[in-house]
Amino acid sequence: MKKLTRRYETLESLNLFSSLGDMSKSGDLQDPQQVEEFLARVKEGLSKAIASASTLHGRRVQEMFQALVASLGKVRLIKVEDQGEGYYHGDDIQPPDYRIILDDGRNFLAEVKNWYFKDPANDFKVRRKDLEALKRYSALVGGELKLAIYWARMNVWTLIDPRFLNNRGSYETISFGDAAQQSEMLTMGDVMVGTEPPLVLKVIADQSKPRSVAEDGIAPMTVGDVRLYCAGREITDEVEKNLAFYFMFYGGWEYDNWVELDGNQVDAIVHEFKPIESVPGENVALLGFLSSMFSSYYNSITLTLPDHKVKRLRAKFSPSWLGTLIPPDYKGKALPLWRLQVRPSAQG
Question: For 160-180, how does the pLDDT look when each residue is reduced to its tens digit (9 = 90+)?
Answer without folding.
Answer: 999 999 999 999 999 999 999
